[in-house]
Amino acid sequence: MKSTDNITKKVWEYSESLGMLEAGDRILTGVSGGADSVCLLFLLHEIQKHIPITLRVVHVCHGIRKEAGEDADYVKSLCEKLAIPFEREDVDVPTLAKKEGLSEEEAGRRARYEIFETKAKAWLMEEEANLVTARSTKPTSGSTKPTVTYGRVKIALAHHAGDRAETLLFNLFRGSGLKGLASIPPMRETKAAGVTVIRPLLCLTREEIEEYLAEKKIAYCQDATNAGDEYARNRIRHHILPYAEQEICHGATAHLNQAAELLAETEEYLRQQTSAARKACVGSFEGQSELQFEGLLEGQSKEHSKELRITCDSFDRFPALIQKRLLLELLLELSPGAKDIGAVHVEMVRKLFYGESGREADLPFGIHARREYDQVILERSTDPEARGEGDAADLMEKEEKISLSELAEKGFLTIPWGEDSFLFHVLPYEKKDQIPEKTYTKWFDYDKIKNTLSIRTRRSGDYLMIRGGDGCPVRKRLKEYFITEKLPRRHRETLPLLVEEGHVLWITGHRISEAYKVEEHTKTILQVEWKRKWRTKDGGACQGTDI
Q1: Which end of the chain is more exposed for a tag (fewer CB within 10 A), N or C?
Q2: Higher-pLDDT residue of 540, 433
C-alpha cells in the first residue's frame, strides 16, 4: 500500500472515530493554498468517494502579501479541476488590525473564522429552505414526494499535530489555564446552531503532509510570513520543537499531542463539575433588588442590572479548583471581554466567602462583589444610578424638609425625590375607617407630629419604636434594625426615610414607627405616598404606586 493510501486511511479512521465526517455532511473547507489546506482538500476529495459528503471551498484573501491574489487563483484552479464550488472573500487585514488594535496575525484569524461561520450558516439556511421546498412539492400521479436528507454543516480546517503542539507550548509560556493547555480541539461547536468546526489533520505531522503532497505531485503555495521568526508561533515551530525532537526526545510532538488530548478530557470533566457547582449554589436574576420587588407593576421591567448570587454554604462544599473556575466563569459572564479578568480578581471575590458580611470588592468593567450575610453577590449594572453615580449618589446627601404649617394650610404637598416623589395629604379620621396594609402608602397620627418632617437617607443616631415582646413600644436603633432584617448594606445608604428629628416615622417600603401609628383616639391622619418612577421594558418610564 502506498504511503498516500496509508495517510488517507489514517485521516479517515481518525475522523470516523470522533464522528467528524458522517454521511450527508456538508463540509465547508478553508483553503489558503498552503501545504496543509491543500492536503486537506485532496484528502476530503478522496474520502468523498467512500462516503456521501458535499464539499465547498472558501478562500480568504488577507491582502497582506502582494502574491495573495496568485494564491487565490491557484486555489480556484484546484477547485475547478476537482469540480468543487469555490468562493473568494477579500479582507483588508492590515487596516482591520489597526482599527481593532490587534496584531495582523490575530486580526486575520478572527476575520477567517467570522467568514467561515457566516458562510456555513448561510449554507445551512440555504439547504433548509430547499428541504422545505422539496417537502411541499406535490408529487405527480403515481409518484411519491422526494426524500431529502441534509446533514450538518461542518467547517474543516487544516490544523495538524505540529500546530497543536505549538499552541500547547505557546499557551503554556503565556501562563494559560487548563483550557488553553488543551490546545486545539479536534471538534467544537460554533455560536451558529448546527455548525461545527472539525480538524481532520490533527492526526498528521507536517512531514506526513509534505510526503503526501510530494507523492501525489500536488503543488502548493509558499507563504513567506511562515518562513520568518516575526511571530512567536514561528519561533516555536522553527527552533523549540525541532530542538525537542532532536535533542530531548524523538516523538516530542506526538507526546505533546497526547498531553493536549488528556488535558482536553480533563478540562471537559472539570467543566461538567463546574456546571454542577453552578446549579448547586448560584442564583441569577436581571433587575432590581429584593427591596424593590413589592409593588412592582405588571409589565414593568426591573432595574438595569444583573446579579449573580452565590450561597456561601453550598460554595464551601466544593474544592478550591472548582470554586475558582466557577468564579472565573461568572466574572467573564458579567464582563464584556476576558482581557482584564484574571486570577487576582477571582481571588478577590473568593476571599469574600471567608470574611464578614458587608465586605466588598470592585473589579474591572464596573463589576461589584459584596458579601451579604450567607451570600456573595456579583453585579454589573448598566444603569449609572445603580452604580451610585448621578442622582442616586446625590440623594445620599439630600434632605427635603416638609413644613407642617404649609401642609396644614394647603392640605397636601408634593415633594420631589430624584425621579420619584412623595405625596402628603392631611385627612380627617373616622374611627370606622379601616387603615389598609400598603407597601408604598402609609398613614400616621398627624397630631403626634410636633416638629418639621424630613425626607433623607440615614444618619448616625436614627431610631424608631418597635413593638417589644411584651407588646409595649421599645426604642431600636436604625442600624440594629437594618442588621436584624438583613437589609443589604448598599441599599441602606440610599433608602429614603421619613424622619422627625432623628425619629424615623417610616422606613420606606418597610415598617413605620409604633409611636406614630393611627389609634382609636386619632382625629387627623397624615397620608404619605411614595410614587416611584419605574423603567419599562422598552426603556421608557411610568409612575408606580400601591395597587
Answers
A1: N
A2: 433
Q: What is the pTM of this model?
A: 0.60
How far CA 14 is from CA of 19, 173, 198, 204, 529, in Å, comes to: 9, 29, 11, 10, 72
CA 235 to each of CA 201, 305, 338, 501: distance values in angstroms, whole numbers, following the listed order: 22, 46, 26, 74
The DSSP annotation for 380-403 comes to EESSGGGGT-THHHHHTT-EEEE-
DSSP 137: S
What does residue 299 show for φ and ψ, rounded to 5 degrees? 90, 0
- Region label for 251, one of left (φ > 0), alpha (ψ between -120 and 50) or beta (otherwise): left
Query: Is the pLDDT confidence value at 382 over 70?
Result: no
Cell 495582523 found at: 104
Quote the pLDDT of residue 295: 37
Quote the cell numbers at residue 338. 476576558
Closest CA relative to residue 421, chosen from 409, 410, 411, 413: 413
Contact 170, 184 (CB under 8 A): no
Instruction: Give CA separation, 334 vs 328, 344, 367, 485, in Å.
Output: 10, 16, 7, 29
How confident is the model over 163-187, as a mean pLDDT? 88
Backbone phi, then psi, for 104, in 5-degree steps?
-65, -35
Buried b (16+ CB within 10 A) or exposed e, 456-471: bbbeeebbbbbeeeee
Dihedral sign of CA atoms 510, 512, 518, 519 in order: positive
SS3 string, 248-287, reads: HCCCHHHHHHHHHHHHHHHHHHHHHHHHHHHHHHEEEEEC
Task: Give me the sheet containing 375-381, strands edge to edge.
Answer: 282-286, 305-311, 375-381, 367-372, 360-362
Encode pLDDT of 262-319 as tens digits.
999 999 999 999 999 999 999 875 544 433 433 333 333 344 457 899 999 999 999 9
**What's the grid cell of residue 486?**
438583613
SS3 338: coil
Alpha-carbon gap, residue 62 to 116, rounded angstroms: 14
Long-range contacts made by residues 347-351, C-beta under 8 angstroms, separation at least 24? 349/376, 349/378, 350/323, 350/324
